[in-house]
Amino acid sequence: MTPSLTPDTTTAPATAGKIMLVGIGPGSADHMTARAREAIIEADTVIGYVTYIKLVADLLDGKEVIRKSMTEELDRAVTALEAARQGKKVALISSGDAGVYGMAGPTYEVLFQAGWTPDDPVQVEIIPGASALNSCAALVGAPLTHDFCAISLSDLLTPWPTIARRLDAVAMADFVVALYNPKSGRRTRQIVEAQRLFLRHRRPDTPVAIVKSAYRRRESIIFTTLDQMAEADIGMLSTVLIGNSNTIVRHGLMVTPRGYANKYDLEQNGQTRDGEKRGRSLSTGLLGWLETVQAQYAEGTAIETLAQQYRLPADYIRATLLEPISELASTDTAEEEA
Amino acid sequence: MTPSLTPDTTTAPATAGKIMLVGIGPGSADHMTARAREAIIEADTVIGYVTYIKLVADLLDGKEVIRKSMTEELDRAVTALEAARQGKKVALISSGDAGVYGMAGPTYEVLFQAGWTPDDPVQVEIIPGASALNSCAALVGAPLTHDFCAISLSDLLTPWPTIARRLDAVAMADFVVALYNPKSGRRTRQIVEAQRLFLRHRRPDTPVAIVKSAYRRRESIIFTTLDQMAEADIGMLSTVLIGNSNTIVRHGLMVTPRGYANKYDLEQNGQTRDGEKRGRSLSTGLLGWLETVQAQYAEGTAIETLAQQYRLPADYIRATLLEPISELASTDTAEEEA
Fold it and tell me: Does residue A125 have a pLDDT over 70?
């Protein structure tokens, strides 16, 4: 039962309490930040899902520990606020990063509902940590590398059409995708639907890595392919990483290339390819592309044809054509490629 | 000039070298993990972009330090491999997480090109860290919370149409989006194009946060809106966070709600709404949605109509209709909402 969220009318305690939203990373002591560790040590009260509490057990002597099990994050946030209003320093822990499917959002929702503002004596600090996608990626190679997305397959709070639309959009646009909450005892069909949507755009042999309990005792890493993904051993503690159209698996490592082959001939001593320059946009980068499109249009190519060729909306092509290209070439310093 | 990438034919050193790809997080000592710090301390040689080297200066006494400036990541990776082949322990540092627009991908590309395999005496370890999107998010509130994407606006290695297609897809599918490399002295129009694409789908007043140098001396946080984004003060050290259609800014904090309002009436003591159950999928979750769609289809609604109503591909709707709904209701345990 969710406690009621009412404005604070009790007497303020002598010392103001504090809520620290701690991202503990994958859960091993090695991979916690100094500030995360410090925050838990500093706390009077530590609140969290029972599995995460276990991961930091060595830091909890003498503290009030509130273990939450199968209840909503809202309860934990309300309990944290009540304790902080009593003057306690509260560490509300999340695995990974508190801001990614963690306690940060729910806590602020509860705080706002309760009339809290940043001027309140109770202060709030969010301590960032490496999310599951970062930790899992580090164990399988370099699958992320470039543009990626995180999507939760949990439909407990999100309508399925919204999730499906997201899966289809990112599969079409060729992102590397991390699926959180991919499957549970109850939710077994969502991963099948995700596979169905991805197969509309990606090759069946697209690399997929499934990582469970990264950096923990029962760590397990499975490599498979998109067409086998739905049958793989996936559970509540798993993160699924789906490669993009360039991702490869070699020597047991999943690597998404950065795109150097677009610019450099890696077989020939790393020379830049014809028309390309180190430290400059690709010839097919924005300015080069705009010039090409303008030339095509000037030659009489219809906007609809351009839209199909580049797989971009016609109204977008029309709008960019209307805007003149004027770029400063202020310095000749090569740009850091990131 | 990129050194040549040839297989190793030199005599193997007595002790095998090691390459540690270290994600140092936002750059303050507080926010480094224990393992990241340890790896740098353990290293004989530390290689990195000059700005990141400065961030860990206190750990570098007695070490060989190789500062790279405006050159490609490939050079750093090649230098790391050469040093490791001489038996050195090499820390190759990235800000944030090495796997996210960092050194992990480029290093594996170089290693594979040089004929390295995991059986090689030179071992490779990736040490995960909080990426810029996690650190920046922690400073502005809870903007991520749920499904999000990271997109780099750097077209040095990626064609513009690919980037544009990604921006449009994630704007349509209502993700929270983190833009990396949003702007530089040379690349000033990409952010304008990103704004143009987002405005096709998002309200002009969609919250945007721009964070520079998170957790560092010159930290700066600006809140603005989508229609003002292109004019804002954005530089090479900035990360831009664009909210989704539910993101709000209240009391100077940017928060994307988790979706509890879909299930609970937060104004009324947190009661579940009619038809919803704690610990269970939403009535519009996958199974409920499939039942609804099947009922509509049985009543004679055309697949094309359903496709338009739910904004999903017609072939997807057709395929799911063909597959019977069979879900195990194995236990009655409420599911953790994540």
Answer: yes
Q: Between chains, do A189 and B327 touch, taking CB under 8 Å as contact?
A: yes
Among A195-199, B8-12, B193-197, which stretch is predicted with the lowest mean pLDDT? B8-12
Confidence check: pLDDT of B327 > 80: no
Report the gap between the CA of B64 and the closest CA in chain A (Å).
Answer: 23
Q: How many helices (H) and strands (E) does chain B have?
A: 11, 15
The per-residue pLDDT for A278 is: 75
Taking the CA of residue B201 and the nearest CA in chain A, the distance in Å comes to 12
Secondary element (H or E) of residue B94: strand B89-94
Q: What is the pTM of this model?
A: 0.91
B30 and A29 in contact by Cβ < 8 A? Answer: no
Facing B289 at nearest CB: one of A160, A288, A290: A160
Which is nearest to B127 in space by CA: B8, B9, B247, B36?
B36
Q: Is the dihedral of CA B63, B64, B69, B75 positive or negative?
A: negative
Q: Is residue B335 part of a domain?
A: no
Where do the DSSP E strands lie in A18-155? 18-23, 45-49, 64-68, 89-94, 123-127, 141-142, 148-152
d(CA B60, CA B39): 11
Are B245 and B286 contained in the same domain? no
Count up the domains in chain B and report the number: 3
Q: Which residues of chain A have a CB within 8 Å of the CB of B258?
A: 73, 105-106, 109, 157
Is A338 in Cβ contact with B152 (below 8 Å)? yes
Structural domain ending residue among the three candidates A130, A155, A170:
A130
Q: Which residues of A touch B296 (CB under 8 A)?
A: none
CA distance A74 to A1: 10
Q: Could you tell me the CA-to-CA distances from B288 to A155, B174, B179, B295, B325 in Å, in that order?
A: 10, 22, 35, 11, 10
Would you say residue B95 has pLDDT above 80?
yes
- Mean pLDDT estimate for chain B: 89
Q: Count contacts between A and B (CB, < 8 Å).
A: 458
Asked if A156's CB is within 8 angstroms of B281's CB, the reply is: yes
- Domain-terminating residue out of A223, A255, A287: A255
Statement to judge: residues B29 and B118 lie in one domain: yes
Confidence of residue B53 (pLDDT cuts 50, 70, 90): very high
Q: What is the ipTM of this complex?
A: 0.91
pLDDT above 90 (res A23): yes
> Does residue B281 fall inside a structural domain?
yes
Domain membership flag for residue A336: no
Distance (Å, whole) CA B6 – CA A35: 43
Which residues of chain B does A160 touch, with a Cβ-Cβ cutoff of 8 Å?
284-286, 288-290
Mean pLDDT of B305-309: 96
Place of tokens 């994630």: B170
Is there a single domain that holds both residue A75 and residue A151?
no
Are B338 and A154 in contact (CB < 8 Å)? yes
Q: Which residues of A touch B338 (CB under 8 A)?
A: 101, 152, 154, 180-181
Which amino acid would we find at residue B223? F
* Yes or no, beta carbons of A106 and B159 under 8 Å apart: no
Cβ–Cβ below 8 Å for A134 and B333? no
| CA proximity to A197, closest of A180, A212, A177, A181 | A177
Mean pLDDT of B293-302: 95
Q: Which residue range forms the structural domain that includes residue B267?
A: 262-329
Share of chain A above pLDDT 70, in %: 88
User: Do residue A200 and residue B162 have CB atoms under 8 angstroms apart?
Assistant: no
Q: What average pLDDT does the segment A178-190 reach?
A: 94
| pLDDT at B25 exceeding the cut of 90 | yes
